Request: fold
Amino acid sequence: MRFKITIDGKVFHANMVDNDITKEIEKHLPFKAIYYRYTEHEYFTRLPFKTSDKNCKKETFARKNEIWYFGGWNAFTILFGDCDTSPFEVVKLGELEEDVVDNLKNNKEEIEILVEKG
Reply:
């Protein structure tokens, strides 16, 4: 499955992993939300619906230009820098086809992002 992600009017595409979380997110598309900058590597939003990472592969290292889920915050996260998340575990949701780093690394503390099928 493929998602279209619009950030500040610029369109990015993500090839999503086939797991329970991405299937649940797909049911709720499109959704627009405010994403918050967290440290120097990501923007995140809390999903406006509940989902579970119970049956998903969890990891402790997330990479730039990827999309991740953190169950502790029910967070959908877009990374613009690599990140060691230990001791917390995260679930990879997808990889962006285009490089999002330049668009996000010098952006505001809060940005609006639209996620759609596509």
